[in-house]
Design goal:
Blueprint (H helix, E strand, L loop, with lengths): L1 E7 L10 E9 L1 H19 L8 H4 L2 H6 L1 H14 L5 E8 L14 H17 L4 E5 L4 H15 L1 H5 L8 E3 L5 H18 L11 H14 L5 E2 L5 E2 L2 E4 L3
Parallel strand pairs: 1-4, 3-8, 4-5
Antiparallel strand pairs: 1-2, 2-3, 6-7
Helix pairs in contact: 1-4, 8-9
């Protein structure tokens, strides 16, 4: 199983976003070629831009919805296609912290730990090994590669995640469909949370209506899991800094 991980916003006191999201898009290796092909064809058929990088920052904003109907059509087709793909989505939604995160070179931030636990549980349920893939390089997030390895081998929790392969991979989001899917998903979930769309949508705001509709589609692609001790792990989990 492959688990592509990306974020929208970043959990730090100086981040302009009051919420950030770390999302994972998981699918079987046997589905990888088909999923990448579907995304490639979508870019070609709707935008005539096969090599365009699909990013929430460039596609999921009010300016696009006012001025770029071609991109709106693409986003609509993307989320309709997502419903048809054999993927599972997980996300950790983090309130902006009041203090900087722990900076220990060997400490894997809790939101990564939460996400990895869900990936492990899904892989264990399927009887597969899970490989995690991140955008960028091992130096991201203050040395994610080193922190990931330390977590797996130096903590009892990490050692119990026997379905997670021993080292993450770092890939180029420009050409990696799984990372691009995770990016789009994270952007929708963050905006849904920031705009408090779980309370409803302001009348006469078609953009936020679209964000809520996309969120409902994402919900259909996530699963809640249970640990061996019977504790529930929500597919989309919200963490509050208080």
């Amino acid at each position: 199983m492959l688990a592509f991980v990306d974020e929208s916003g970043h959990p730090h006191p100086n981040d302009p976003n009051p919420w950030s999201v770390l999302a994972a898009c998981c699918f079987s290796e046997t589905e990888s070629r088909r999923i990448a092909g579907r995304i490639h064809a979508l870019k070609r058929d709707v935008l005539q831009r096969e090599n365009m990088e699909m990013k929430g920052l460039n596609l999921l904003n009010r300016s696009v919805y006012k001025n770029r109907m071609d991109r709106v059509a693409f986003v609509e087709e993307f989320f309709n296609t997502l419903l048809d793909l054999e993927v599972v989505i997980f996300a950790i939604v983090i309130e902006r912290p009041s203090a900087p995160p722990q900076s220990d070179d060997t400490f894997l931030p809790f939101y990564f730990q939460y996400l990895i636990e869900r990936i492990h549980l899904l892989a264990d349920e399927r009887g597969e090994m899970a490989t995690t893939l991140f955008d960028g390089n091992g130096g991201n997030f203050g040395g994610l590669s080193r922190k990931f390895n330390s977590f797996l081998y130096r903590s009892s929790q990490g050692q119990s995640y026997t379905r997670i392969t021993d080292a993450p991979f770092f890939v180029d989001s420009d050409i990696t469909a799984g990372i691009q899917i995770a990016d789009m998903v994270a952007s929708v979930i963050r905006q849904y949370q920031q705009e408090e769309l779980y309370k409803g949508v302001p009348s006469g705001d078609p953009y936020l209506w679209s964000i809520r509709r996309y969120y409902r589609m994402i919900e259909q692609k996530t699963v809640d899991l249970t640990t061996p001790t019977g504790e529930e792990r929500r597919g989309i989990y919200r963490y509050l800094d208080h």
